[in-house]
Amino acid sequence: MRQAKTESFTGHLSLAGDSVPVHVRIGMDEAGVLEFEFETLKLTDQSRFIYMNWHTPSREITYFSLDAATAEGKTFSTAKLYFLSLNNRTDATGTWFSPSAKCDLGVLLYKLKDRAEHAALRMRVKGFKNFGPLREECPLGLVVARGQHEIDDVDTITGSFAVQATGPVDAAAWRAEAENLLKHIRRVMSFAATSLLRAPIMEFFSGDTLEVTVRSEPRQHSAFAPIIHFLAQEAIFRAGVNSFFNPPVAVKHLFFAIEWFAMTSTYNEIRLVEAMTALENLVDSNLEENETVILPRRVFDKIRRVLLRVIRQCVAKWEPSTREDALSDINEKLNDLNRRSLLRKLATLQKRWNVPLDGIDNAALNAAKRARDKVVHRGQYYEDAKETDADLWTHVMVIREVAVRFLFIAIGYKGQYISHMNGYHNAEFPPAL
Question: In the chain, where are the structural domains located?
Fold first, then answer.
């Protein structure tokens, strides 16, 4: 279903101090992409700036501004319009062009027929699968998630996350906080689906005005191994709302970890790197510096200088052609001696957050870490792998399971989920003792 019908607008296309009147038809397709159909323009002294600036020698995108309105008073504005082609032609009457355009960010303003009783913000998302609306009360009002239980194309708008105030509010302040809430919910529900839910459209209802902000978003991809079934999202939705206002642990940069985890890939090597990076992000963001190094930096710097002096004496016996490069590489690697291992840091954060890792032993974690290192350092896992090495899928599922449990703790989730470690099965979090 198209998100906005195509309508005729009249306005001005501008760049810096230049401007030209234009007629353009603007609509929005099923994926929330703005569409533009410009009427043919004649090349004149006034319109020459378009021809001269749309494609610069540096190949940088030239963004034009467009401000236009319909006869009924609907307005559109953007400072992020760019042309794909001018489609120019020349005949006896002159040079003409019919530009084809895209837009990174645009705003539509509508006058509502019925005044909005309370402020409301709605985020329209692609690929969101759900059965029946999800509702939760919060300090900002009523939060509702809606989606489709059958989806033909995940790269279309299939649902929304919305929040409506339950009384009078300062519209600007409320909107800013409500937008942050919906972004948080989108990330949590992306984590549940294991697919980044793209949100190209944001709608703000206030008084007699509807403001629709449309952003260009990458293509939505199908989910890989969801951890929450789309028929059972009540608990994860509740956790998403509640964790925004009352996070169960003091977690920093949660959104980075979730987005790494929810990235979509077709290769197990990349899936392993993504899940491990999600964990590394949590560790790096939520441990203090003295927990990530073995010795205080000032102490280690003294030891490092002594080590480098000894190494220089040894390297001095080498061929001059290799000596300087070797010293440079060794000097850079010396800092690694003072860094605690990833698994040691992970254990520190696990203890602090009280993350249950029942059924996951250190041997499995170490094997998965080695598998990740092979992928990162040589670009593949299986070459020269020993017959006793576990299948790469096993390592992916182990690290994903660890990441899932850390993220569950971070958002305060309790309930059923889909575990893919040791085969697809339903599990409970936290695990029963």
Answer: 4-104, 120-245, 254-290+341-429, 296-338
